Amino acid sequence: RIASGRRPAGAMGLLPETLCGRDVDLLFRYKTPVLVSIRDRRLGIIHLVLLIAIVAYILLYEILYKGGYLLVVAPAGGYRFSLRVPTNEVGCDPITDTACFPDLAPLTATPYCSQAVALGDGCPSGQYKGAHGSCLEQRPCQLVDELDVMTPEGSDTMLATRVFQVAQSPVCATEETSCESLWRNLPGSSQDTFLADVERFTLLIDHAAGDSSGATELGDVSRNMRGWLYVPDNDATCKRLADAGRGVFTDQDESQATDSAPCYVNSALAAADNYDVFEVRDWLGAANLDLDRPAEAWNP
Predict the structure, then answer these.
(1) 207 close to 77: Cβ distance less than 8 angstroms
(2) CA dist 197 to 88, 105, 133, 142, 148, Å?
(3) Least confident of 28-37, 40-49, 195-204, 280-289
(4) What is the pLDDT of residues 224-233, one digit of tens each?
(5) Using one digit for the tens of pLDDT, what is the confidence trace for 164-192?
């Protein structure tokens, strides 16, 4: 829309009507916005509803619900296990510390070992009373360290508690084209033994998490984090850890100490550089499992 009118008198009146063949008013025109007020209740309500919907969508959905104001990055993590034989001092390493040495229970005092004597638990000879009160078969035990117990299998780790060994000799000669049996067990060579005191071996779990993209410095390792081992329904595990001074509480706020389940146990062990370290029996106890339970009971 172009508005024009009578040119004012004065200095501006000295301007020519045209300049280079073009109207001077068109050459020096300027634009200004025009506001129009529409008096219609229906359009006004629709306009207001749309404004509220837009604000609600941005504020409630995009910002608050989806966290649009946050920087979202994909996490990356890793973990490792470390098994160690019981030692005379908590957290010491018998490989690097000459004052550190294994502290395994004597076989004569280990109930599930056939070397144990005078158990007096009411079970027949050759048996011992398990954690659940039933009499279980004893077997010969052997003393081993963590190198004999822990076997990595891909991303998993196997802890051996019982070993069956047998010596064999080959039956088929190399030139044979078919054989009914490849190996023959040597008489009297089989050994079926328990690995003694495995339940008291300490298992360290070290884990870390961080930003996989590297765009931020978010991330840390487990020894700098605050963690808990939750024991939902195993009173014996809670009491054993409480007696060991591990910090056992009814909740994660440490509002009240306890020695019964359910309990939260501070997982950081100061003597092990604040790593998450517990005995094997404690890790199992948190899941309400133990080594005396039949194998079929582990996967009901």
Answers:
(1) yes
(2) 14, 7, 19, 9, 13
(3) 28-37
(4) 888 899 999 9
(5) 999 999 888 777 778 888 889 999 889 99
Distances (CA, A) of 284 to 193, 261, 276, 278: 21, 14, 15, 10
**Whether the Cβ atoms of residue 292 and residue 136 lie closer than 8 Å to each other:** yes
Residue 292: band (very low, low, confident or very high) from pLDDT cuts 50, 70, 90: confident
> Residue 81: exposed, middle, or buried by beta-carbon count in 10 A (0-12, 13-18, 19+)?
middle
pLDDT attached to residue 5: 53
The amino acid present at 65, given as its one-letter code, is Y
Q: Where are the beta strands (DSSP E) in the chain?
A: 18-19, 22-23, 75-84, 127-129, 135-137, 141-142, 150-153, 156-159, 162-165, 168-170, 183-185, 191-195, 202-211, 219-221, 228-231, 248-249, 263-266, 268-269, 275-279
Between CA 146 and CA 144 the distance in angstroms is 7
Dihedral sign from CA coordinates of 226, 227, 232, 235: negative
CB 113 within 8 A of CB 140: yes
- The CA distance from 67 to 28, in Å, is 51
Confidence of residue 6 (pLDDT cuts 50, 70, 90): low
